[in-house]
Automatic annotation (TrEMBL):
Gene that this sequence comes from: Utp11
GO cellular component entries: small-subunit processome
Protein family (similarity comment): Belongs to the UTP11 family.
Organism: Rhinopomastus cyanomelas
Pfam families: Utp11
UniProt name for this protein: Probable U3 small nucleolar RNA-associated protein 11
Coiled-coil features, chain-numbered ranges: none
Renumbered residue ranges of the record's region Disordered: 1-27
Keyword entries, A-Z: Nucleus, rRNA processing
Organismal lineage: Eukaryota, Metazoa, Chordata, Craniata, Vertebrata
Chief location of this protein within or outside the cell: nucleus
Amino acid sequence: MSSAFRKAAKSGQRPHRERAQPAARKKFGLLEKKKDYRLRARDYHKKQDALRALQKKAMDKNPDEFYFKMIRTQLQDGVHVIKQPKDEVTPEQVKLMRTQDIKYVEMKRVAEAKKIERLKSELHLLDAVGKSPNKHTFFLDTRREVQEFDIAAHLDTVPELVDRVYNRPTIATLQKETLKGATDPIHLKKLARQRKNQYNLLKQRIEREKAMFIVAQKIQTRKDLLDKTHKVKVKKETTNGPAIYKFKFQRKR
């Protein structure tokens, strides 16, 4: 016998037993204990007291009392909309900010141009993708010479090196010196892949430098528009260039 039953037997009271879980409510889980009901009741009354305090505060509020949203909002289609504050910036300050923006973009563009020149000096634009093929024209006197023309013999090299546009040694050079550089096909493929990656990087840098140049032009145009001089738009702004304006000529002292 448990201690609760022994205490109840001594006092002559009926022992308390936990209510069994009904089979119909088994899917909802175990029933809440008495402590859980007490916590829920306290939370409910606390929220009701807070709602009553807010209602009393709203009823006691003076509708004519000043508050900042009275001057910060405006009525649009029956709805109060907060006004957006205007930027407190003078035209001189705006021009200075535009100048700083142009200097920053120009600095980044110059740095990109230097990287492009360094890449070009390393690659020399050899057999670049998209480059127009070189043409080497040979002039002959008769049709017979054209039919019997041997380009390898004319260039004094071996037939395997005729298609090269660079590093094409003559037969005499090949006889005197050993072949330098990579000759393994796997190594040659690796070098070709690295060269292709370098050309892709060069292409990306050229496009980035061009985009920065366009951005600098657009910022300069917006800076020029801050002047009060009469102007007429000649051409709309595009993704590849800024808008073009024609300004009224003014004689400067």
